[in-house]
Amino acid sequence: MRHGKMSLALWEDGTRYPDGGGPCRREYRHGHTEFTEIRMIEWLQYAVAWTFVKMLGALPRPMARSVATAGTRVLLWMRPKMRKTAEVNLRLAFPEWSEEQRRSVLRKMTRNLGWMAVEFARFPKYRKENIADVVVLDGHENFLAGQKCGRGVVFLTGHIGAWELSSYAHGLYGYPLHYMARPLDNRPLDAMVNRYRGRSGNQPIYKNESARVMLRVLKEAGTVGILADQNTMPQEGVWVDFFGTPACTSTGIARVALHTGAAVVPGYAVWDEGLEKYRLRFEPPLELARSGDTERDVVENTARFAKVIEGIIRKYPDQWVWVHARWKNRPKGERPIYEFLK
Question: Which of 158, 177, 181, 201 could lock 229 by a disulfide, CB 3.0 to 4.6 Å apart?
Answer without folding.
Answer: 158
